[in-house]
Amino acid sequence: MLPKSNIEKVLQYALNQKENLQIYLEIGNCVISNNIAGNSIKPFTVKKNRQFCEIPE
Asked: What is the pLDDT of residues 35-46, one digit of tens each?
């Protein structure tokens, strides 16, 4: 059996997520990006990382 190419992996992933993608398209007001969540925890993670560095606050 030949190894899968990257495009095959992407297409298979999309097919596996078909139901979830259809729900997203049908509802229309869902946010597909997680930037809001990432930005909200960023200050905490940056402060925690400073504990392991020699960077003054």
From this structure: 888 888 777 666
